[in-house]
Amino acid sequence: MMLKGKVAVVTGAGRGIGREVALLMARHGARVVVNDYGGSEAGTGGSAKPADEVVDEIRRDGGEAVASHHSVASMAGGQAIVGTAVEAFGRVDVVVNNAGILRDRMIFNMTEEEWDAVIDTHLKGTFAVTRAAAPIFREQKWGRVINMTSTSGLVGNVGQANYAAAKLGIVGLTKVTALDMARYNVTANCISPFAWTRMIGTIPTETEAQQARVEKIKKLSPAHIAPVAAYLATEQAKDITGQILGVRGKEIMLFGHHRPIMRVHHAEGWTVERLGEMVPGTLQHHFVPLDTSGQYFNYDPLV
Ligand SMILES: NC(=O)c1ccc[n+]([C@@H]2O[C@H](COP(=O)([O-])OP(=O)(O)OC[C@H]3O[C@@H](n4cnc5c(N)ncnc54)[C@H](O)[C@@H]3O)[C@@H](O)[C@H]2O)c1
């Protein structure tokens, strides 16, 4: 019962990872707002059912929860979602920004509409819900922000310019939230999950190797992500902030951060010619090659 007395908002909690986070937080005593507008993978349509079913599950389990069917993708939506927590339970202590969609397309074909839908859901949605909760957290001098990023942004992934931009944007947003809120006992962290959910159900399975890979990925349950999210919400995790934790099955990976890894100085400053002489022999030795194979994380998961 490590979250007794806390009120948690979990967005996109009608399915997949968000659902598991909501169920586990409720089992640890949190009262939960289960937010989900119940759309398709691509963010079309909508249904109250996914959120309502998770609320029923929590209540059957003896926990307390209410549903919110608002979209995270507007400031009004963010306010309404946090407002649901305040109305139902009188407070809010934790927000888990998890709602997400995909609209994959190569950069040379991606439409404005595909770009906007993904940026609005992930990046603006994370801002909208955090922005609604932040003044409350500041006032009560306690809060937890848990945001979902992705290796698509951290490493790069073919065909996901919109999603990668949003997910790396969320890393920057998380770091600044952590800085802005540090003096108010509020932490902000990212989880980079790996889990078999509807969202990644379109991975190709044409070749035998691809099929074998998908069989392994299927063992990565979204339930594995939930303990890390719940732990970050506890009192005990008060000193963890601005971090990126990868969670894949029974593994946890701590991600690095962008920092200079070498510095070169020229007394007269750099010219194009001097760069031409220096770069191949020095900087270039340290370049991280592009992950053109998309295989960076496909070494065998320790399931
Ligand atoms: N599954 C993975 O391996 C993986 C990898 C990296 C990152 N993620 C991230 O984890 C999060 C959860 O993904 P998942 O795999 O559980 O996907 P999912 O599709 O199973 O669940 C996402 C949920 O978000 C809801 N949602 C979408 N747009 C919404 C909106 N505007 N307002 C409210 N709800 C909305 C959907 O209805 C859905 O129920 C996402 O942010 C995703 O980008 C997942």
Question: How would you characterize this protein structure?
Answer:
The protein is α/β, with parallel strands linked by helices and 303 residues long. The protein has one domain (7-254): 3-Layer(aba) Sandwich (Rossmann fold). Helices cover 39% and strands 14% of the residues. The chain has nine helices and eight strands. It has helices at residues 16-27, 49-60, 75-89, 112-140, 151-154, 161-181, 208-217, 226-232, 272-278; strands at 7-10, 31-35, 65-68, 94-97, 143-148, 186-194, 244-248, 251-254. The chain has an eight-stranded mixed β-sheet with strand order 3-2-1-4-5-6-7-8, with helices on both faces. Strand 2, helix 2 and strand 3 form a beta-alpha-beta unit. Helix 1 packs across helix 8 (226-232) and helix 4 runs parallel beside helix 6 (161-181). The longest helix has 29 residues, at 112-140. It is globular, with a radius of gyration of 21 Å. The two termini are 27 Å apart. The site of nicotinamide-adenine-dinucleotide has 34 residues, from helix 1, helix 4 and strand 6.
Give a quick rundown of the structure.
The chain is of the alpha/beta class and 303 residues long. Helices cover 39% and strands 14% of the residues. The protein has helices at residues 16-27, 49-60, 75-89, 112-140, 151-154, 161-181, 208-217, 226-232, 272-278; strands spanning 7-10, 31-35, 65-68, 94-97, 143-148, 186-194, 244-248, 251-254.
